[in-house]
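Lab meeting, item 3. Inverse folding demo.
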């Protein structure tokens, strides 16, 4: 994949119990500041109205290379924040992370990009 393709949309799906929701949202606001500091131009978190407790974090970076650089910028403090958030996740598996990459004229929009495991 060309490193200059973009934009890149990253989604992370969490399963959060109702009693953990306030703590989760407070931690997510901190994570949003980290994502924006590290290059995200759009960031947000939303809850599925059809399935309460399913939350989707989403953020956009301008290009695939910029997203890869985000991984290099993760500090020990950032990793601790991510671990706190992951501890609230009640799913049987780790939060699902997906990457969608635009910029391919033949694709007509964002294309799904395979990902390697990384921090959330």
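The presenter then showed the designed sequence:
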């Amino acid at each position: 994949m060309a490193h200059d393709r973009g934009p890149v949309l990253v989604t992370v799906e969490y399963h959060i119990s109702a009693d953990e929701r306030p703590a989760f949202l407070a931690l997510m606001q901190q994570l949003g500041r980290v994502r924006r500091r590290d290059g995200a131009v759009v960031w947000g978190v939303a809850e599925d109205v059809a399935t309460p407790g399913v939350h989707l974090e989403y953020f956009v970076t301008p290009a695939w290379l910029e997203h890869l650089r985000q991984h290099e910028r993760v500090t020990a403090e950032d990793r601790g924040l991510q671990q706190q958030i992951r501890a609230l996740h009640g799913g049987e598996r780790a939060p699902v992370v997906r990457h969608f990459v635009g910029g391919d004229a033949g694709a007509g929009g964002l294309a799904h990009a395979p990902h390697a495991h990384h921090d959330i």
